[in-house]
Amino acid sequence: MTANNAQNQLLARDQKHLIHPLHNPAAQKNGVVWTGGKGAILIDANGKEYLDGLSGLWCNSAGNGRRELAQAAYDQMQTMAYASGYAGSSNPNAIELGERLAEVTYPSINHFYFTSGGGEASDTNFKTARYYWKLKGKPDKTKVISRVWGYHGVTLAAMCATGISTYWPMFEPRIPGFVHIPSPYPYRYDAPEGESQGIAAANELEKAILREGPDTVAMFIAEPVQGAGGVIPPQDDYFPRVREICDQYDVLLVADEVITGFARTGKMFGLEHWGIEPDLMQFAKAATSGYFPLGGVGMSDHVAEVINSGDQVWMHAYTYSAHPVGCRVALAMLDIIAKDDFVGMAADKGSYLLNGLAAALSNHPHVGDVRGLGLMCGVEMVKDKATKEEFAASEKIGIRVHDECAKRGLFSRVRGDVFCLAPPMVTSYAQLDQIVEILHDAIVEVLGS
User: CA 20 to 30 Å from 133, out of 36, 94, 290, 390?
Assistant: First the structure.
C-alpha cells in the first residue's frame, strides 16, 4: 500500500463514522490525516511534513514531542487517573495549580475553578456573573456584552457571546440577553473625526450599557487580542477606557485569555500590555499546550468573596473539573514556560515574524493589513487596497491561499480573507522565515505579484 493510498483509506474510514467540528463532508474528503509531529512540524499519513502555523488550534505552544508533558501525564495516570473535584474532595495537583496560577496571573486573581476547555469556561463565567449579582441584590443584571469578531466558544450560551455570525443561523433562536458591540479593529473601525479610534471603540461599550440599562448588564467579555476573528490587537488606549466604563456602570470585566494566556502575546496574560486587571478571566489551550483538555476561570478576590458569602451550594459542576492528570500536565507546562522563557520568546519571535511578513507582503496590491502582537499575526487580503473593499465571499480567496500554503508545507487557518498565524513558541527563526516565504508565494499564486 502506497503512502497516498494509506491516507485515502484513512479518510474513507473517517467519513463512514466521524462527525467533525465544523463538519463539512466535502472538505473532509480532501482533508489531511495527521499521524505524527515533532516540535513545530506536523506529519500527515503520507509522510509529508508541514509547518504548524497555528499551534494546532492556538494551543500547542510547546510543540509536539515534549517528554516532560507526556511524562507528567503518565506518572499521574499511574498514581491516580481520576478523582472527583466536587466540594468535599480535592487532589494535590489541583491545589498546587491554584497556588501557581495565583503567582503568575493578575495580582487580584487568586481563586480558580477548573474546566475541560474554553467553552465550559465561558459558560462558567456567565453563570458566575449572574450569581454574583444576585448575591449583590441586583438580580436583573444578567446581560452579557461582547464584540463582533469575538470568539468565546460554541456551546449554546458561548455561541451567543461569540460575535462571528456564521456560527448562529443553524441553531437559532439565540438565548436572549447577549449583545454585541463593534470590534476596535484598527484596520476597519471608523471613529468620528478628531477622536481617538481606541477611545471611540471603547465608548461603544458605554453606549450599549446605557441602551440596555446599566441595571440589566452583568458583564463585558473580551479577548485582549481577538484571535479566531482575525488576529485583531486593540489600540493602546482601548482597554484602559473599557476598565473605566465597567467601573462606572458596575459591570464585570471578563478577560477571555483562552488564546492570549500563557505567554502568547509576549506577556504572560494579554491585559498586562495595558496595565489593567479583569474581574474574571478564563483560560485553556496553552495551559497544557493541548496535551490534555484543561481550562478554567480565575476570579478576583472581590468576586470570590461575594461567591463565598452565599449560604447556598454553588450549583455549577463538571465531571472533569480539577482533573488530576490535567492539573499535573498544567504544572509541567508552567515549568516549561518559565524555564524556556516563553514570554521572551513570544515577544522576540513575534516581532521577527511580524517584521518579516510586513517586509514581504505590505507592498502587495491585495494585502491590506499586516498586524500582530506577540507570536500571533494576521494578514488581511482585500480587493482594493485604497478603499479596503473586500473580495466577494464566492471568490474564496482566503481558502485558496490556505490551500496553496498547504501544498507548500504550511498549515494554518483563515477567517474569511484573513490568514491567521500563531506558531508554536519552539518554532525556529529559520522556520519563521519559511512561513513568510510560503505565505508570500501562496498569495502571489492566487492574486498575482
Answer: 94
* Domain finish residue from 309, 339, 369: 339
pLDDT bin (cut points 50, 70, 90) of residue 27 is: confident
Residue 266 scores a pLDDT above 70: yes
Q: What is the 3-state secondary structure (H, E, C) of the chain?
A: CCHHHHHHHHHHHHHHHCCCCCCCHHHHHCCCCEEEEEECEEEECCCCEEEECCHHHHCCCCCECCHHHHHHHHHHHHHCCCCCCCCCCCCHHHHHHHHHHHHHCCCCEEEEEEECCHHHHHHHHHHHHHHHHHHCCCCCCCEEEEECCCCCCCCHHHHHHCCCHHHCHHHCCCCCCEEEECCCCCCCCCCCCCCCHHHHHHHHHHHHHHHHCHHHEEEEEECCCECCCCCECCCCCHHHHHHHHHHHHCCEEEEECCCCCCCCCCCCCHHHHHCCCCCEEEECHHHCCCCCCCEEEEEEHHHHHHHHHCCCCCCCCCCCCCCHHHHHHHHHHHHHHHHCCHHHHHHHHHHHHHHHHHHHHCCCCCEEEEEECCCCEEEEECCECCCCECCCHHHCHHHHHHHHHHHCCEECEEECCEEEECCCCCCCHHHHHHHHHHHHHHHHHHHCC
Average pLDDT over residues 191-215: 97
Give the pLDDT score at 5: 84
More confident residue, 26 or 294: 294
- Domain boundary (339, 361, 376) is at 339
> Whole-model pTM?
0.96
Domain span at residue 324 reads 68-339
Residue at 242 is within a domain: yes
Residue 1 has pLDDT above 60, yes or no: no
